[in-house]
Amino acid sequence: MTPFDRQVRAQIYRLLVNGSKHVGSHSLAASRGWDPDEVAAALRRLDSEHRIALMPETDRVWMAHPFSGVETAHSSSVGDRSWFANCAWDALAILALMGDGTARSGDTAWEVRRGVVEPNHVIHLQVPVRRFWEDIGFT
Amino acid sequence: MTQYLEATGGVPGYVTTSQTMYELSTEWYAGRTDEKWDPLDPEEAEALFARHGLIGEFWRPGK
Fold it and tell me: Rounded to a whole number, what is the largest CA-CA distance in chain B?
């Protein structure tokens, strides 16, 4: 990653953590006074290096794991703050980053308090680690 | 689980718990939002998974 790509990646996370629901080259550029075309090029590099995932054929951030840049059936909330996640694992992972709260995946919800997840459900993972990025949408 | 797989047409994959995945996440996603973050290399990732009892072919990263 170039130094600029690192800055762009970190800014994606800042915006998503702070509640932005649509992160793309223009919102990123506006937030830091960057050139939108340079940001778009950085986004494409970050996508190709699997640092993030862009919505296909766009410069909109789809996934900056564990956060989702689009609405999904998976979410996390801490107090009055909430985020979309990419999957059930990522919903729990957002709480690992942001603190105690509630993770949801479809009709299932977990509460995390002081590192304890209730209820402690069985989770079924379908895609082996080495194949995570073959079809990241399915993963 | 067998009924679930038959109903969803899913592949066997790996079965773990929400507690394990949360605890794994505290390490797997540590520092992810930082500018200096870099992905773990395959050996580091495999060792991290193993610390949480996640071992075997399913958890073996590609090279």
Answer: 45
User: Phi/psi class of residue A99: alpha, beta or left (left: φ > 0; alpha: ψ in -120 to 50)?
Assistant: left
Which ipTM did the prediction report?
A: 0.90
How many helices and strands (H and E) does chain B possess? Answer: 3, 1
| Type of residue found at A134 | E
Q: Measured between CA atoms, how close is B29 to chain A, in angstroms?
A: 7
The confidence score (pLDDT) of residue B20 equals 96
Tokens 């990419």 locate to: A86
Q: Which residues of A touch B25 (CB under 8 A)?
A: 66, 89, 92-93, 96-97
Q: For residues B1 and A39, what is the distance between their CA atoms, to the nearest angstrom?
A: 45
- Give per-residue pLDDT as tens, B17-40: 999 999 999 999 999 999 999 999
3-state helix, strand, coil in chain B (%, to 5): 50, 5, 45
DSSP structure string for A39-93: HHHHHHHHHHTTSSEEPTTSSBEEEETTEESS--SEEEEETTEEEEBSSHHHHHH
Percent of chain A past pLDDT 70, that is, above it, reads 94
The pTM of this model reads 0.90
CA–CA separation, B20 vs B57, rounded Å?
Answer: 18
Tokens of A62: 């789809």
